[in-house]
What does this fold into?
Amino acid sequence: MVDQVHKEFRKRDLLYSGALWLLSLILPDPQLHYRREYQFRKRDLIYFLTIIALPMIWSDPHFHHIMVLAGIHAILALGLTLFLGYAGQISLGQAAFFGIGAYTMAILTTRCGVPSLPAFWASGLTASFFAYLIGRPILKLKGYFLALATLGFGEIFLVMVRESPGLTGGVIGIFDIPYFSLAGFIFDTYLKQYYLIWGILMGLALFSKNLIRSKMGRAFLAVASSEDGASAVGIDVSRIKLSVFVIGAAFAGLAGSLFASVMSTANPETFSLNLSVLIVMMVILGGMGNLYGPIAGAIFLTWLINGLSRYQEYSLPIYGVILILLLVFFPDGIGTRLRVRLIYLISYSGRKRRREKVEL
Amino acid sequence: MFLSVEEIVKHYDGVMALNRISLQVRRGTVKGLMGPNGAGKSTLFHLISGMEKPDSGRICFMEKEITGLQTHEISRFGVGRTFQTLQVWGNMTVVENVLTGMHTRIRGGFLSTGLYLPWIKKSEEIAIKEAKEILELFGLFGRWKWFASQLSYGEQRRLEIARGLAAKPDLLLLDEPAAGLTYPEAKQLAQTLSRLKEAGLTLFLIEHHMGMVMEIADEVAVLNNGELLAEGPPDMVKSDPSVIEAYMPRK
It folds into this structure.
């Protein structure tokens, strides 16, 4: 009897370890994942190949379009995670920088006839310029006060856009923004846009990864954890905060310009507080303090909103319930907890059967 | 004079925290600062390191006035410090804590680290090597991959001193380095500190541990209620009647 049980365990263990190995190829190790040394791992290659191969396997234009939006959201979330997840400051005004980027792109390409690429960089610069201007006074605030100040900035931005129809087209917005073009190559299908946006996202993710694993990333974490300690070793806390804010805003500006050229329109409704909250949600759901998490969160939430749009009037309650459940079961983010949860699930059936055996 | 505090005054809403205190610390010596609770010791350290501004008076370090500068600027002049309430960064590993202590000594701005230019990689590698040497000195090498929040209290204290040392300061302000340590731990710490002194570092430490101060300090100053009671070699201060009065008031 004992022998038989033992044998069965072995067989099952083999199955589990195989499943765990497969998991380790896809998801980061929950223990090691905070380690900020950079090594190119097998799963990075798998992510990379998935991003390249996915639209070819699933060649549905609607899928491409949603993934384009997810990519833009991911750039936004990536910018915010440097500020929120690493430097520990909160911003509810990312949508305003997103809007600044989009309008810069729109105005430069439709009114001034500037090519896409210079306009793309200009929108990042404009957003970071505004971030510098408002960051200097408001970054002295902490916690809720900082959240309120950035929220106020977002609202002021919306009012300014609505009330200056000469520059931004007012409530109606700007139409017929040309598609992104690079040396004569026009990104006019969803598939081409997918590769454009995910390529830029990968570049920005690499930039963030480099920041995080070097002295700047350590300074961010130090500021988040203890400002007194940080200033005692010679870190200029206010400068670090301002710089992270500016970098996050630059990411948002770049995302905005991509958004404008993909959707061909820019109107103020898009850049409301809802979007800012959505970006914060992506970072929190995806997991703070890591870079893959917010990207996963962005993809997940974009698909969730897209899927719920079918159930018009029920969509908001369902959305709320799903978010609450996720925050209950993944308190530190999907990116951090998913592997732990899956390991638990895989071993669950085994444990259940074992319990029954013992009771016999 | 290496560090000189001249006629410094600090009020908190009518409470006199420091009243016209003047002190000097000579290069290469260990100075102890003692006094009962609420004597103004930590306030003096806050003023020297720039976390708070004095109401009047001057603080000079290496012939330069540092009164009113910001903490990070003072730190770049070569004044390191540790805290009475631990300020290690629990969200980072032990080695990262020490590396962050070297922040000002590692080259690189935002753009160059973001692009990870070749010389960034090189300076990171050198820094990691040096950080591990510092950890070895404080007996934390075996823990370098741990998160700082996972360390015991005594280890966190040592880590904080290691971090302060990583910035290569000329003067290190230690705010109760032995608070909460067990007797052998405190003894070991005293040995490490005297080794640092032999290496030429100037130390200025607040300490309640009489034995430790007497062992490693060249000079001791005693504060009470914001007034400087006594200053001089440990033996002289120990037998000073006003000091005995302050520590063991007559019934």
Remarks:
- Chain B touches chain A through 40 residues (CB under 8 Å).
- The radius of gyration of chain B is 19 Å.
- The domain at 3-86+155-247 of chain B is CATH 3.40.50.300 (Rossmann fold).
